[in-house]
Fold this sequence. Notes:
Helix 2 packs across helix 3, helix 5 crosses helix 9 and helix 8 runs parallel beside helix 10. About 19% of the residues have low confidence. The protein is elongated. Helix content is 50%, strand content 6%. It folds into 3 domains: 149 residues, Rossmann fold; 63 residues; 103 residues, no CATH class. By secondary structure, the chain is mainly alpha-helical. The chain has a 5-stranded parallel sheet, sandwiched between helices.
Amino acid sequence: MARIAISYRRSDSQDITGRIFDRLVRQYGKHTVFRDIDSIQPGIDFRTQISDALSATDILLVVVGTRWLGRGEGGANRIDNEADPCRIEVETALRRGIPIIPILVGGMTMPEVDELPASLKDFAYRHAVTVDGGRDFDHHVEGLIGALDRFFAGKTAPPQREVPPSPAPLAKYGLIGVVAVVVLVIAGALLRNATTQTATTIQPVMSQTTPAPQAAPVAAASVTPSVPSAAPQIIAPAQPRTADIPVAATPAFDCSKSHAPDEQAVCHNGQLSYLDQELNVLFDGLRSRLDRDQQAVLWAQEQAWLKQRGVCGPDVGCLRDAYQSRIAQLQSWH
């Protein structure tokens, strides 16, 4: 079975590495992905342990944050130390021809060739992926999983994906949120139809007989659905406000780390960048006021929206409509 190893420096990227690890385990199975290959047992030569761990590895993911080089104050970098475990892991993979994918986190860029020791200079030429720890995390990890799927497509024994015994909390609450939105849309349509039909039916009766009190409200109430109080109240998106949007702005995400067509389109359009900033402020403010269950629903809807934004590609009109619709949804949460 193909195996994925994750190399990282604890003082640099332990938290986000844990999130990436959990997502990959959910995707490929707990026996396929492993980390902490630098957890050395007492009395064992850690070079031997790292070598043994990588001998069963098909691909190495190297998480690179702002402190991955291990810069010291006025001293040498940790990566320059021949006994540095992170250095040995990458050196071993390069020497054995094991494919390496650098994962840039925390706004980090790939190290320059002159920042690396001679044995690691080839690492600087590896194509990297960016994983942001904010609201684009799931979107970026999906891109990483897509790259791994393409890599494993050429292997004779691709990793076996595990089906979890029960839905993850995020997926469960995300489904609840989606169902709630669908119920609201259907309910609105039924309510309008019922009201129209009631008015049409009652009008000739009123002209001939004494109408029964409150007949129309009763008919309308009979089709009003029961909606969970925790569900967001969605309103129709506001009309485009293109004329009011500044033409010069930057989005909330790092354009230098974004390569998807939709993200690049936002980066090169000041109005879309402004809308991205507005959406980010609304999202962060709303999330801080919600309880844990409501935050799960909010996160699930945000990830679904990011996928919808991706479908727009570089279409500016489609992206503008997507942003304004999502902003209206966030403004309607109670």
